[in-house]
Every structure is written in C-alpha cells, then in structure tokens.
Amino acid sequence: MIYDLVKPTDEILHTQTETFDFKEPPIDPMELFEDMKETMIKHEGLGLACPQVGLPYRMFVFGHHLDIENVVGVFNPQIVDIPDGKKLRYTEACLTYPDLYIDIKRPDKIRVRYTTHEGVTDTIKFDGLTSRIFQHEYDHLEGVMFTKVATKFHLHRAQKYRKLILRKRKRVKT
Q: What digits encode the pLDDT tens for the residues 55-94?
C-alpha cells in the first residue's frame, strides 16, 4: 500500500513518535516496512519517516529509490555516538516540503543502533550522505523538521529559491 504524505502543518510532524513495540506490534513490521519502502520509491525519496505519512511509530526507511533491494527499514533508532564531532554543511531536501532545498550543518559521522523489520538489533557507523539521511529521518521521529534545524539565513535563502522555482514552473505550464 502506498501512503499519502501529510501536509507540513500536520501536528504529527511536530510530535515525538512512540517506540515500536515488537512484542505487541501495532502493525506487522514487515508490512509496515514494505508499505513505507513502496511509498518512498513512489515519491523518489532517499528516506521516509512514519510521521510523514501520518503514522506515530518510531520507524523510517532509507536508501535510494532506484536501488530498491538495499532500502533499509529502521525501527527505534538511537544515535549512540558522534565520533569526531566534525560537522559539514550540505543541501538537503524533504518529501514533506517539495522544491525546498536547505543547507544544513550536521555531523559527518555517527554511530547508531536500531532494529530491522526482522527484529534484529544492530549497531553500525555511518558517514557522508548515509549519515545525513539517517539524521534527517531521525529528526522526523523526534518531531523536528529540517526547517527548524536550518539557520534563518539558509532557510530564507531556500524559501526565496523555492519561490523562483515555482514561478518558473508556472510560466512553463501556461
């Protein structure tokens, strides 16, 4: 099943999610993983968190929408370490805010712990783009949108650029 994305004003996007209970799952974890994966692929994303589709669960998927065999399901994630503390600025996008590209500064390397849709818990290190995507989706589970993580300067610049994109797109359609 492909879920609909909620609007940016939906309260669920600004609320911390509930721990996913594997002992008494509110929904079959395999089914949730497959539905979230399908939804992310349909929207050509690199990640998708449950709150973005109106679900209160502490779960997200990430990977490349063209490499569907390697999409990862992440339940109850924790960022357990930021090894070197080095932060890099990189442009991010979000399926909740189409055409909004914001420069965000985040740690380049993280060590995380999470459970897969099969119930296996693992601790792993991520860096580069994978680290960034993980942190972006993790923020969704905390009720934090990337528009709140950005500096005012970078958010304002991104909003101006978005207006320009939308104006050009409108001209092309007419």
A: 999 999 999 888 889 999 999 999 999 988 789 999 999 9
Q: Extract the tokens encoding 40.
A: 């992310």
> Considering the domain boundaries, does residue 113 fall inside one?
yes
H helix or E strand, kind and range, residue 92: strand 87-94
**Among 145, 143, 161, 165, residue whose Cα is nearest residue 153:** 161
**Which of 44, 92, 137, 142 is an active site residue?**
137
> Which structural domain range is residue 117 located in?
11-85+107-145
Which value, to the nearest 10 degrees, does the dihedral of the CA atoms of residues 78, 84, 148, 50 take? -30
Q: Could you confirm whether 137 is annotated as catalytic?
A: yes
* Segment 116-134, tens digit of pLDDT: 998 999 999 999 999 999 9
Find tokens 């650029």 and name the residue.
161
Is residue 18 a part of any domain in this protein? Answer: yes
Instruction: Report residue 1 as tokens.
Output: 């099943």
